[in-house]
Design a protein that fits this description.
alpha/beta; globular; single chain; 10 helices; six-stranded parallel β-sheet; six-stranded mixed β-sheet
Amino acid sequence: MTKRAGVIGHPLGHSISPALYAAAFKAAGIDGAYDAWDTPPETLQGRVDALRGDGFLGANVTIPHKRSVLPMLDSLSEVAQKAGAVNTIVHRDGKLIGENTDVVGFARSLREDAGFDAKGKRCVLLGAGGAARAVALALIAQSPALIAVYGRTPRNTDAMVVQLKPLTPSGTTITWAYPGDGSFITTMAEADLVVNSTPVGVATTDTEGQLPFEEKHIRAGSVVFDLVYNPPETPLLKAAKARGAKAVGGLGMLVYQAAESFRLWTGQDADLKAMLTAGRAALAR
């Protein structure tokens, strides 16, 4: 029987996940199929329930559903509980388990692609959704001096910081404010790392070609990490290079978190080289 999985989100015109997993299944010799399931919020419950059927390995979850799926699952891993968000659903004996592989995916990409250690550093995080929570959790584990979260919705941003504050070690401050206010300008001027976890700049969306903030706020010598992977060079990455910052795109994180999802579903390690090659080819198309 063909093993099935897919990605649940809305919209999904930018997604290259099917190409990544096709390469992973092929390399592992597994008869598997992976689809992009464009799922508006009103159909989310039905889509999640369908994963309980025979032959389903599970699913990835992306914007805007990483928090909405929480009450639809039977249990959550410890990491998913701490992050308050799920990006991977594992089907096991009719039960649906919520996992979060974004945390390890971002941590690995930050280390291997950006060459950045957050210990004692000042970090700015844009966004307060499911991806932002995973990034914040990965950063907390490295004991930075500051995690400044800037989100458009005060209620969501405040809730995220309140939830994560008890997890921060001594010497780490986590705080939040509005993008573009006085504290944002000051913090950006001193930032060692800036992470965009918003969908601003994603290809085929209303924000394609846009920046999440003004280019002038990028500090030369900082690291700018954009979780957006399509297009490969986002407007933010282009601006970061022009301002003398190190620019890191989201493809590495996408592949690393996908490889961890693959392991959870199949019990086998994914071929990272095959996935990266497939991802680059998909983006080139």
